[in-house]
Amino acid sequence: MLNYPQVALDFMNRDHAEFIDLRGKLLDLLSAPSDTAAINTLLDQLLEHTRHHFAEEERLMQETLFFAYPMHKGEHDNVLAEMSARIGDWKQTHDNETLREWLERAVGNWFVNHVSTMDFVTAGFIAMKSKNAGCQTYQESC
Ligand SMILES: [Fe+2]
């Protein structure tokens, strides 16, 4: 079970829970001999979910002139490149154990670290900007 904090923006918390759910489903499928097509579909969903989530964070960071945007965006780009490469490798080799190990350790560690640091600070900044602007666009509950 991964232990990560809730951040100040609802959509980010929802997306983080969805990411963990997708990762968990993949880990379950990969730990037993299983359906390659189902793994394939979930990997595509994970990549699409992550792309969409990062793009949404980046849009808000730009709108609010977030001071650490280049650093946060740089990490997103690295993660997407790594994820695409890992998925591409799996599609060629169907090496479930290598993929499972990566998802379990590297992705798990990265996720907890990223949410606890960059996302936590970013969400707090955007929520504060939203409050100052009368809670218009960035936050559902204010
Ligand atoms: Fe992020």
Helical content (DSSP H or I, runs of 4+)? over 70%
Please indicate the percent range of residues in DSSP E strands (runs of 2 or more): under 5%
Secondary-structure-derived class: mainly alpha
Biggest β-sheet: count, sense, barrel? none
The stretches of 5 or more residues where confidence is low (pLDDT under 50) are none
Order of helices and strands: HHHH
Would you tell me the overall average pLDDT? 93
* Overall geometric form: elongated
Number of helices: 4
Care to count the β-strands? 0
Notable characteristics:
mainly alpha, binds fe (ii) ion, 142 residues, 4 helices, single chain
Protein described:
Helices cover 78% and strands 0% of the residues. With 142 residues, the protein is mainly α. It has a domain of 59 residues. Helix 1 packs antiparallel against helix 2. The radius of gyration is 16 Å and the shape is elongated. The two termini are 30 Å apart. Fe (ii) ion (FE2) binds next to helix 3 and helix 4.
Structure described in brief:
It is built from 4 helices and no strands.
Task: Write the topology of this structure.
Blueprint: H1 10-30, H2 36-63, H3 69-93, H4 96-132
The protein binds fe (ii) ion.
Residues 57, 72, 76, 114, 118-119 line the site of fe (ii) ion.
